[in-house]
Amino acid sequence: MMPETQVKPKRTPADRPFPWRCPRCLATDAVNIETIAYTAEIGHDGQVYHLEIPQFKVPRCQSCKELIVSHGADHQIRTALRSHLGLLTAEQIRVGREELGLSQEELASRLGIAPATFARWEEGGSIQPQSMDELLRSHFNSQAHSGSSSNFSSNDAP
Ligand SMILES: [Zn+2]
């Protein structure tokens, strides 16, 4: 009678509250978030980067010391690479788009890319290439300079 809806596929293992059971040694309540210095290797724009992330937050089993590198870890690595390369963050992209008053689809079509690609940049799932970063900035900046004050002269009230 009530079919299962598939509207909320967003729940990932990373959302579970800590401590976790260790998937490796199976110790219960053994996995907690730890902050460590981490060196990550990540490919982007045809290059491989070695990144030092001094404040890397990662779940680790206190029993067997296994690191559990999750989706959240990938996200931290991408965020670190963005800042290393001086690219817009996922958050900056979202804010910039909202200031333009555009949907993800609308801005994607202005950029000439697939909406799914844009959505991944904005959600932090992948990183925009340098060329697209510049294009995004030029869109965001053009809006900033043609703000509300410039419409002041043509007074066309109904
Ligand atoms: Zn363990």
Separate helix tally: 5
**Beta-strand percent range:** 15-25%
Class by helix and strand content? alpha+beta
Overall pLDDT level: 84
Query: What is the strand tally?
Result: 2
Question: Which ligands, by name, code or SMILES, are bound?
Answer: zinc ion
* Largest sheet, spatial ordering of strands: 1-2
The CATH architecture designation of the largest domain is Roll
Written account of the structure:
By secondary structure, the chain is of the alpha+beta class. The chain folds into 2 domains: 20-85, Ubiquitin-like (UB roll), CATH 3.10.20; 90-146, 434 Repressor (Amino-terminal Domain). Helix content is 37%, strand content 18%. It is built from 5 helices and 2 strands; from the N terminus they run ββααααα. It has helices spanning 71-85, 90-100, 104-111, 115-122, 130-145; strands at residues 31-44, 47-61. Strands 1-2 form a two-stranded antiparallel ribbon. Strand 1 (31-44) and strand 2 form a beta hairpin. Helix 3 crosses helix 4. The longest helix is centred in the last third of the chain and has 16 residues, at 130-145. The chain is elongated. The model is unreliable at 5-11 and 147-157 (pLDDT under 50). The structure holds zinc ion. The site of zinc ion (ZN) has 9 residues, from loops. Zinc ion (ZN) is lined by residues 22, 24-25, 27, 30, 61, 63-64, 66.
Name the features.
158 residues, alpha+beta, Ubiquitin-like (UB roll), 434 Repressor (Amino-terminal Domain), 2 domains, two-stranded antiparallel sheet, 5 helices, elongated, disordered C terminus, binds zinc ion
